């Protein structure tokens, strides 16, 4: 589901902002466990904690979890592209697989489109860092974001709701109700959200607003417990979004291509937008017309059955079906000129089935699973580039060449997996865990590309030379093991060391428009490579976590090292003009990534909560093989400097938070806030100078009054209090008009909320 989070109020005397204490239960290992018993780097964020973060959507956790970077989605209001420990998805297009999996109640979301998930009936969010393959249905090489909805109670009636008004004419209404239909046997919950906000970006040429919000979403969950050993859950959700385009801002001079009457290139002049580039002030122009905005319809059904076969064995079945339809207009050049505008319409549907057999008896426990995913994606794309090409008919007589490219493609993915993980407890303190996964994926892809200037279609793969033109499908498979040694010096402390292998499937380049996009030069030899290979990582981690002073102090720390090979990179550069628009995808080589993470929550006195987190990340390209460039090992094709830093891998992420509650009889007053620092980072794979963020600090604060033992509340809040200007994402299409566009986070905003909870 995409859109906004409608959140419950902050509860009185709640747990710290980032829950690490001995009472926190998570399902990171597919069974309920105390977080202190889980030898995994996991941050558990409760519903109350999300409210403290003032998160209107999943982007609200940006900068709040160490070494986790959430990228905006490159011109989309509903995409969610996570990078964990420097590992993420290299391109937002729907044919590239996420490196970090998003799961809602066990159902995997196979694309980042529409994955800016609503959490209005959330119980908690678990962010797992590092490869997750021996426990989760779909293999994820970088980590997993596990979203757990609130189950309806079969015994108690519950209701909550709120109404928010804020800057940019924000209106946010949400409601949640849970009621038993048959006492102790059957319950239903219904939740809904309405979220609308004017745009934060103004076009100075037309005074129209962009980067707005307009979301309606709902979810219903029916839960049956016919016996103590059987639980059945049926869930359905729907999200509808209708927004204006999401505008970025150009950081490099735009160019176009000038031909003579014989269609020979005679120049590459600079294009001058009417609204010049300068310091960004939430103003940007576009050539998109009114009505050319963004639409999203996303719905899904899931059915989960938990059956205890006996005291030691539980069978779980998770069946999911989802249908996604985003239609986006995107202005890549972010000017009133039509250098590169596009329409992208996607029809996606997926069916998944997962079976888990869980065993827990004596010193032995574990999970065995089978997984199947069948996904079909169709897209229709139109690229409008009428200000990109010009022809000189005579000296001084220059006219534009209207240029439109039409693309239709189809991809089918079938993924199969068998996985298992077992833990053996030698003593009360010492245990070992081992797991193994086998994954096989089959991908089929077809694509047709035509342009108004070159009406002969390019058909992929039929346009490739033999034997590639007979390519029907491509298969990828891998065995990925893991092993962990855990030691508990005390009941509330844990030391662990783990080694695991991660795998992400290869695939087809969803931007291929010509043979040049699938032609690679390796060691001086030109080769047609119609698909890119899988990427793998060996990850090594050691960590510790503990709860002290009766849960008033909670600490966790981890150090990790990752050896990453054959990473998939969508690189820029290449030819320009009619034959241009080159977007190759290469298995560029090797990365070395290491770092440390630390999280703490402290309750020094009864009504004061303090929290802190720090992540340090050192990520480098050790090889970057792209034979079209000289020198070969260069990440900056326009100069001699070799920067070679992976994108979206800030060396430091930090957060400090505090909240204090003042009791006032049957009422209370809570003051809280946090500061988040995200370090400098590149926003493109090949380190384009214009696609760079210098680092930023965001300050947020709130004050909340609770009445009648917390049944009613009134809250005022501010985000980005000091008006920090910061970039969240970048578009690199230098082979089309030298386009290098960045996207900015929200300006300062304020909200006032009134709500209730029973």
UniProtKB/TrEMBL annotation:
UniProt feature coiled coil, ranges: none
Any one Gene Ontology cellular component term annotated for this protein: cell outer membrane
Statement: the UniProt record of this protein carries the keyword Metal-binding: no
Sorted UniProt keywords: Cell outer membrane, Ion transport, Iron, Iron transport, Membrane, Receptor, Signal, TonB box, Transmembrane, Transmembrane beta strand, Transport
Domain (TonB-dependent receptor-like beta-barrel): residue spans on this chain: 238-720
Domain TonB-dependent receptor plug: 36-144
Protein location: Cell outer membrane
Motif TonB C-terminal box: chain residues: 741-758
UniProt-listed Pfam families: Plug, TonB_dep_Rec_b-barrel
Gene Ontology biological-process entries: iron ion transport
Membrane topology: Multi-pass membrane protein
Family: Belongs to the TonB-dependent receptor family.
Name of protein: TonB-dependent receptor
Species classification: Bacteria, Pseudomonadati, Pseudomonadota, Alphaproteobacteria, Sphingomonadales
């Amino acid at each position: 589901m995409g859109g906004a989070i409608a959140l419950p109020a902050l509860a009185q005397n709640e747990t710290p902002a980032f829950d690490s204490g001995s009472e926190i239960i998570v399902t990171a290992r597919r069974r309920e466990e105390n977080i202190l018993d889980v030898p995994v780097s996991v941050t558990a964020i409760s519903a109350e904690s999300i409210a403290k973060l003032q998160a209107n959507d999943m982007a609200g956790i940006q900068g709040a979890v160490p070494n986790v970077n959430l990228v905006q989605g490159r011109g989309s209001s509903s995409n969610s592209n996570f990078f964990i420990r420097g590992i993420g998805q290299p391109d937002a297009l729907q044919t590239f697989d996420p490196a970090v999996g998003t799961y809602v109640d066990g159902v995997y979301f196979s694309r980042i489109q529409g994955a800016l998930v609503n959490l209005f009936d959330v119980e908690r969010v678990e962010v797992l860092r590092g490869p997750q393959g021996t426990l989760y249905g779909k293999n994820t090489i970088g980590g997993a974001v596990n979203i757990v909805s609130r189950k309806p109670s079969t015994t108690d009636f519950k209701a909550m709701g709120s109404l928010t008004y804020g800057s940019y004419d924000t209106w946010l209404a949400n409601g949640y109700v849970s009621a038993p239909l048959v006492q102790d046997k059957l319950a239903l919950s219904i939740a809904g959200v309405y979220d609308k906000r004017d745009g934060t970006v103004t076009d100075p040429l037309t005074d129209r607003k962009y980067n707005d919000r307009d979301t309606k979403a709902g979810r219903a969950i029916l839960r049956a417990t016919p016996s103590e050993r059987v639980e059945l859950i049926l869930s359905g959700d729907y999200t509808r979004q209708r927004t204006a385009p999401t505008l970025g801002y150009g950081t490099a001079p735009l160019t176009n291509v000038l031909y003579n009457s014989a269609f020979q290139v005679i120049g590459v002049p600079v294009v001058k937008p009417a609204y010049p580039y300068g310091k960004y002030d939430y103003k940007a122009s576009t050539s998109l017309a009114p009505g050319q905005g963004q639409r999203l319809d996303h719905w899904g059904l899931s059915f989960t059955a938990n059956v205890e076969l006996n005291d030691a064995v539980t069978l779980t079945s998770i069946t999911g079906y989802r249908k996604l339809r985003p239609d986006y207009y995107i202005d890549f050049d972010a000017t009133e000129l039509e250098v590169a505008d596009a329409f992208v319409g996607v029809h996606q549907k997926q069916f998944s089935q997962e079976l888990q057999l869980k065993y827990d008896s004596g010193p032995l426990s574990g999970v065995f699973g089978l997984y199947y995913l069948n996904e079909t994606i169709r897209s229709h794309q139109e690229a409008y580039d009428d200000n990109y090409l010009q022809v000189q008919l005579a000296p001084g007589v220059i006219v534009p060449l209207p240029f439109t490219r039409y693309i239709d493609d189809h991809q089918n993915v079938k993924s199969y997996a068998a996985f298992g993980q077992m833990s053996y407890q030698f003593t009360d303190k010492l245990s070992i865990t081992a797991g193994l996964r086998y994954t096989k994926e089959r991908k089929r892809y077809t694509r047709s590309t035509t342009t108004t200037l070159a009406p002969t279609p390019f058909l992929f793969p039929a346009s490739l030379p033999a034997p590639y033109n007979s390519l029907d499908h491509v298969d990828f498979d891998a065995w990925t093991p893991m092993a962990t040694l855990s030691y508990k010096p005390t009941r509330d402390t844990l030391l662990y060391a783990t080694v695991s292998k991660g795998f992400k499937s290869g695939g087809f380049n969803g931007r291929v428009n010509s043979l040049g996009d699938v032609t690679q030069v390796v060691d001086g030899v030109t080769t047609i490579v119609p698909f890119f290979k899988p990427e793998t990582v060996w990850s090594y981690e050691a960590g510790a976590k503990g709860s002290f002073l009766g849960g008033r102090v909670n600490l966790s720390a981890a150090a990790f090292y990752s050896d990453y090979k054959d990473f998939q990179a969508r690189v820029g550069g290449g030819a320009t003009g009619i034959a241009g628009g080159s977007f190759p995808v290469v298995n560029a080589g090797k990365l070395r990534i290491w770092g440390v993470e630390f999280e703490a929550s402290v309750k020094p006195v009864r009504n004061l909560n303090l929290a802190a987190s720090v992540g340090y990340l050192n990520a480098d390209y050790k090889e970057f093989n792209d034979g079209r460039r000289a020198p070969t090992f260069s990440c900056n094709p326009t100069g001699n400097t070799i920067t070679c830093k992976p994108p979206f891998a800030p060396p430091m992420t930090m957060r400090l938070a505090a909240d204090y509650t003042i009791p006032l009889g049957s009422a209370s007053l809570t003051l809280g806030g946090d500061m988040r620092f995200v370090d400098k980072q590149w926003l493109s794979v090949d380190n384009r100078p214009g696609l760079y963020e210098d680092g930023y600090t965001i300050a947020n604060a709130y004050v909340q009054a609770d009445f009648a033992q917390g049944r009613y509340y009134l809250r005022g809040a501010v985000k980005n209090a000091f008006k920090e200007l910061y970039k969240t994402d970048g578009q690199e299409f230098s082979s089309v008009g030298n386009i290098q566009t960045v996207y900015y986070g929200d300006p300062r905003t304020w909200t006032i909320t009134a709500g209730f909870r029973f």
